[in-house]
Every structure is written in structure tokens, then in C-alpha cells.
Amino acid sequence: MEIKIFDVDYGFCALIISDNNHATLLDCGYNERTGFCPTNYIMNSSLFGL
To answer: What is the DSSP string of 20-50?
Structure first.
């Protein structure tokens, strides 16, 4: 299992990836200063074969 905590300025965002590659995104947000968006990270990630 892997847990990633993302810096989204305000609030909280974490991605939990199970050993069989199922994912759960807890809360969500956007980092206005850096432009980081957790959903874009997931869609561009090779973790899930997308």
C-alpha cells in the first residue's frame, strides 16, 4: 500500500494506492501557487496504466 499526501494550499488531499492498484482519492483541491491539481496527477500517472 502506498499513501501520497499532496500540497493543495488549503485543506487536505491524499491518494491511497492498494497493492492491487486500486486507488482512493481523499478530498481534493488545487494548489493555486504551483498549479498542481491532484486529478491531473492521477490522469497523467503510469501507476494505473492510463
So the answer is: TS-EEEES---BTTTTB-HHHHHHT-TTTT-
